[in-house]
Amino acid sequence: MAELLASGGSMEMVRAAFESGADAVYVGAKGWSRRRAQYEMDDPRIVEAAKYARSVGKILRVAFNTLPASAEVPLFLAKTDALYAEGVRDFILTDPGLMMALKNRHPDTILHASVGCTIINVQDALFYKEAGASQIVAECRMGKETMRKIKEEAGVGLEVLVHATTCYTLLGRCTMSSYTRHEHRVDAAGKDHFPGSPNRGGLCYRVCLTDWDQVGPDGEIEAAGVTLPNPAFFLADDIPDLIDIGVDTIKIQGREYSVALVGEMVRFYRELIDACVRDRASFRIGPWKERMARIVAERDAERREKTAGLIEESVAEDTLSLDPRLKPRVSP
Question: What is the CATH number of the domain that holds 17?
């Protein structure tokens, strides 16, 4: 049966996700996982979470899904060595060089290639398999036929996000947010910090989700309130097909959501997956729709609040535009 993977933005969320039915939980290493520090974990907290996961017979994965500079590689290896010594074996990575380095150093580690790798075809999957990954995360727009081909031809596990966002471009490839914070600093440990670049350990400020004005060559507004596509999705309808394809992991994103909402989402997917597997022939998604709609409404309300805060912060930092014809609309 497909593993259910949930997010862990805090120790409380880790416990809630497991108690609600998650088979595995992922957490982010502080400064290395594309989120604000309050939703990441330092090493002692990761060790605590990993011990708790083992105590209940489940799995904790640690995300290092950023792209480090050469000078940061020794820091990465030191951190993963320390976590390995404490029993952590499961990691989520984006950089193929780090995958190879970690796998060579600790052959029994289990590495998953992050959604930030932008894996869109069988050849991508084979590349990351060669780098050391035993499972890859499908890019959010990947079709089911490509999923089948990867399962049949690549010989790697397949993970699919059923609750996430599609991203304006491709997850892990957008540089739009980096134009909001032109900063760089190196901390005492030698770790680079680029606040506006999620790929380098900073944040995505979701500036694509604000309203934009399209500006003409003479500064006139040609179109007001332009929105860029970045919808959140909730793929409950696809669960039966994903199970039939043989997807190995069904993933729920949401480290920034409330603990209560994450618990509710995990329970929903746990019960839906179990019902589908228990009686696939007669399973129908219809009865689940009303419950799903309530969760979607709660999720969207929390997402709007978080997005508004990020956009406000980015505007305060003098956001620039990638396209000279567009500029963000700032409320008075």
Answer: 3.20.20.70
Residue 186 domain-assigned (yes or no): no
pLDDT at 324: 46
Indicate the pLDDT class of residue 322, thresholds 50, 70 and 90: very low
The rounded percent of the chain whose pLDDT value lies above 90 is: 56
Q: Residue 269 CB: number of other CB atoms within 10 A?
A: 27
Dump pLDDT digits (tens) for 151-196.
999 999 999 998 776 676 777 777 777 777 667 778 888 787 777 7
Range of the domain at 242: 3-171+231-291
C-alpha dist (Å) from residue 71 to 82, 144, 154, 184: 18, 40, 33, 14
Mean pLDDT of 259-272: 96
Count of structural domains, the chain: 1
212: in domain: no
201 in a domain, yes or no? no
pLDDT at 215: 86
Per-residue pLDDT at 47 exceeds 90 = yes
CB atoms within 10 A of CB 12: 12
**77-90 residues labelled b (16+ CB within 10 A) or e (exposed):** eebbeebbeeebbb
Average model confidence (pLDDT) for the chain?
Answer: 87
- Could you tell me if residue 184 is inside a domain? no
Q: How far apart are the first and last CA of the chain?
A: 52
